[in-house]
Amino acid sequence: QMASELRKTLDRPTKRNRWLWTMPVLLILGGLGTSWLWPRKGVVAHEAGSIHFDGEHRIVTPVDRFMPSTLEAWVKPEDLVGTQFFVSSDSYGEYGLGLGVHGGLPHAIFLSGADVGRQPMIVGQWSHVAVVFSPTESRLYLNGKRLWTGPESEMFGEGIPYVVGGVGLDSRVFQFKGGMKAVRISEGERYGDDFTPAEALEPDETTVLLYDGNHLEGQRVIDQSGRGNHGKWELSLPSMPPPTLPKYGIPSRSP
Fold it and tell me: How many angstroms separate the CA atoms of 205 and 149, rounded?
């Protein structure tokens, strides 16, 4: 009976009821109009001059993967759910060269496989993560401590660029959510034994790419390496289902 009375009330052509029906429509149209007229553009700055990744955007770089190389970044995850990549050059359906976090543990993919370190990262805390890829071995670091030494990386596949904040150009999944102060890609093996990470990543003669939160221009991230490898900030909605996660525990040597 209550439903019947409510229906009758709503059906009465009063000004008030017409307004009740019209108001939600106006709100929806207003929201759509706002998004059309003032779309969200540009890289989002975060605290301490860092870049904020929302799990939906990434930076596409013009740098193709190569070896030997070192990938590193200062990051502060907002959550540690599932798998997220800080910088990577994966091709859909196969491994690449990449650095990220899996199940809260620092994570590296190295073309022939993948593995994780055994020391967890912490949500809301700045951490320095790095990985070295060489023809003889791969090495993973957290805050300067070598966590893992694994197999060599075979170099195959050309024209596959690095992506910052995601796993790869064609694999729009496993995206990072959190802050990133800086990311640097270098030629050669920058780190061997344990080290003390520099609070600010600086360019040198081996630096191929260096992005930070202080050099952003709209949808461009300006490279500080001096080589002109500027990045493009773009929306990266998932375009395909995530690939099956690899099985970890690939035989590796202790640090």
Answer: 26
